Amino acid sequence: MIRIRLSLLAIAALCAWGSPAALAESARSLHDAESIVLELRSYALAIEELEEADRALKVAAAVEPENADWRLGLAMLDCRMRAFHSAIEHAKTAAKLDEQSAEPHYWEGAAHMGALAAAPDGDRKKHAESGRDALKRAIKIDPQHIDARTLLGIFYVEAPSIIGGSAKRAEKQATKLDEIPGGEFGAKAIRAMIAADDGHWGDVMRLCNEAVSAAPTHTHVFNLRVRQARAMMKGDANPDFAVAVLEPIAHDERDDFFVARALLGRALLHQGDFQRAAFVLEEALSANPDLAEARLDLAECHLATGDLVAARDCYVAYLEKRPDHPKTKAAKKALKKVRRSIARVDSDA
Which of 143, 160, 261, 281 is exposed most, by the fewest CB atoms within 10 A? Predict the structure, then answer.
C-alpha cells in the first residue's frame, strides 16, 4: 500500500495555475504521482486510496502539463472509479502527448467498453466502435499488448456483427495471444467467452478455471469471474453456477466488489431466493447507488415478496437514474402496473 504525501505548496500549485514559483516548488510531490502510476499499472492501488491518488495526479498534471504519464494515470484512475467519460478524455490527451505509447489507446478503449454498459441507446454504438478502434490502435503500436488483445477478443464475442462482432475475429486474437509470452490468460478468457456464446457451459467452467491459474493479477481474476457469471445469466446456464462463481469475490473489497454483489443478487433472484437477493442487492446499492439495473432486480425481489410500495420506489429511482436506458420502457410499464396494484389495495382497505 502506498502512502501519498501532498505538500501544501503542491496543493497551492493546483489552485494557482499561473504561478511559476508555486508550480516549481510543488515538483517535490511528483514522486508520489510516479508511485501511483506504478500502482495503477499493476492493479495494486487499494480502493481507500483512490481519492488521494486523484488529488496527487491532478497536482502532478498541473505541475507538468506536458507529461503524458499523469494524464494516463488519471485515465486509469477514472476507470477504477468508473468515471468512464472523464477517463476517455484523459486517455486521449495522453495519446497526443506520447504518440509512441500504446497504453493511452488501450485505456481509452477500456473506458469506452466500461461506459458501454450504462450508455443510452443512442450512444452505445458510438462507444462500441470508438472502444474497438482504440484497442486496434494500441495493438498496431504494440502487437504484443496482451490486455488490448484480450479486451478486443472479448469485444468481438459480445458485439453484434453490424459493428464487427464475430467468433472468428475473437479466435484470431486468442491465437495471437497463444504466441505471446504471458498471453495464456487472455487466450483462455476469450475462448471461455466464445464457449459461453455457444452455450457450452462445461467448457466455460474449464477454460475460466485454467485462465484463473494463469492470471497475472487478482483484478484480472475478478473481471473474468464477473464476465463469466454475466454470460451464464445471459445464457441458459443454471443460476447455481453463477452463484458459485460470484460468492468468493462478492465481498472482496480489493476491486469493484459492488459489481459482483449486484450480479450475485441477480443470480439469487433467478434462483428464487428473494429475501437473500434483496439483502445482497441493497448492499451493492449502498456501496454504489448508480447501479441502476440492480434497482430493477431489487424491484423484482420486492414484487415477489409482495412489497408493492418498495417495488414502486425502486422503479422510480431507476427511471430517475436512467431516463433513456434500453430497459427504461419496460420499467415504465412495470411502474404503471405496480401503481395500479397499489391503488386497488388502497381502495379495498
Answer: 160
Long-range contacts of 132-137 (CB under 8 A, 24+ apart): 132/159, 132/163, 132/164, 133/109, 134/91, 134/105, 134/106, 134/108, 134/109, 135/105, 135/106, 135/109, 137/102, 137/105
- From the list 48, 9, 53, the residue with the least C-alpha distance to 32 is 53
What architecture is the 252-349 domain classified under in CATH?
Alpha Horseshoe (1.25)
Say if CB 106 and CB 114 are below 8 A apart. no
Write the single-letter amino acid at 178: D
Q: Average pLDDT of 229-247?
A: 87
- Tell me the three state secondary structure of residue 9: helix
Nearest to 267 by CA among 259, 257, 277, 258: 277
pLDDT score of 317 = 92
**DSSP letter string, 84-103:** HHHHHHHHHHHHHH-TT-SH
Residue 274: exposure state from Cβ atoms within 10 A (0-12, 13-18, ≥19): middle
Q: Cα separation of 72 and 253, whole Å? A: 24
pLDDT in tens, 176-219: 999 999 999 999 999 999 999 999 999 999 999 999 999 988 88
Nine-digit cell at 214? 494463469
> Helix, strand, coil % (nearest 5) of the chain?
75, 0, 25
Q: Domain ranges in the chain?
A: 252-349
CA distances from 345 to 301, 342, 349 (A): 19, 5, 6
